[in-house]
Amino acid sequence: MHPMLKPALRRGWRDLNTIQFGVAPAHALVLGPVDTATGSFLQLLDGTRGLPLLRDEGKRMGLPDDHVDKLVRRLSAAGLLDDATGGGAAADALRERTSAMDRLRPDLASLSVVTSGPGDGMRKLAARRAMRVQVRGAGRVGAVVASVLSGAGVGQVDVLEGGVVEPWDVAPGGLPAEAVGDRRDTAARRIVRQSAPDRPPRRGRKEAGEPREPGEGEPELSLVIIAPRDGLDAHAPDPLTTEPLVTSGTPHLYAGVIEGTGVVGPLVLPGATACANCLALDRADRDPTWPRMLAQWRSGRARHVHACDLALSTTVAGLAAAHALAFLDGAAPASAGVRWEASVPGLDWHARPVAPHLTCPCGAGVVTKGEHPAGDKKPHDTMAG
Q1: Which of 54, 164, 256, 262 is the most exposed place for a label (fewest CB within 10 A)?
Q2: Is there a cis peptide before residue 219, judged by omega within 30 degrees of 0?
Q3: pTM, whole model, 2 decimals?
Q4: DSSP alpha helices (H): ranges in 82-216?
Q5: pLDDT in tens, 256-282
Q6: Distance from chain centroid for Cα 218
Q7: How far from chain centre, in Å, is Cα 31?
Q8: With pLDDT > 70 as the criterion, what percentage of the chain qualifies?
Q9: Which structural domains are found in the chain, ordered by start?
Q10: Residues 227 and 141: beta-carbon distance below 8 Å
């Protein structure tokens, strides 16, 4: 282990014996009391020394024999310590890709803030490389989501979309102007490759030197993001299109823009949180005219360009990508069983819980004694990040 104070957390002395790590209240911690010698020793926790060398340095500074080990344990328990060599074999392989690591250092610093154990941030960053995410949609939302996930280190990002790129599909961070007239899926896959920190492993193959199992094929989907160009399909999704995902137990997240309203969520965890069919059944219960209205909105071919404010679509794409990465990294994002919405020009984000429906065959509405469906949980009062 090469202990290192998490560099992402700015340090400052509140008084002669108390140090504050971090600025923002969400992750800031105060450590004290800290004597002068220990305060000086903290400067050595920069990841360049192993524990034996740190113990020797502590002795030269006049610290008690077991002081260094106690301090390291204390800092580790507080979540303030990282390990410059931790994370396992996958992390070691990623460190060897210098150019990729240089691109991903801000992401690693962020992960170190939200993880507690030394090396956990690097372990999660390396784990992204083995994940496969599918994005359904390559418009102003979907293409940006795909490029952000690829740039954040997700190893395989597949984009499904039909048709050709139109001028109104172009967006910063998404499809470029020079792609107009190209196939949408081809253009989107191109920006995914360009956004990647380095060349990911070929589909169905592992890194050089890693063992391969006989008959090993393409990795399973870790997540599907449904970001249709027509925001109605995110606001009121057709249950039939995602029925295979529910049946196979594949997590999926909705995101889109409709008529000046941005939508992120719900994140559907099949069998645990509400699905598209739960949403449709609930709406029909509350508004008997809903199925009739929805059939009219879906009928016929649109003869106009859908309203999709560029700043709003970029915001939706960023929030959807952040929720997706939180889920992939093992957290429980606030979109699970909840849909976040904001409308221009106010952009006041608010949460709408989506409760599982008792008659839906997805099974999320089956509540056992003492349990509550995820959709009934009270959402956060404010949206983080």
Answers
A1: 164
A2: no
A3: 0.87
A4: 89-95, 98-114, 120-128, 142-151, 184-195
A5: 999 999 999 999 999 999 999 999 999
A6: 22
A7: 30
A8: 89
A9: 3-83 (3.90.930.60), 132-376 (3.40.50.720)
A10: yes
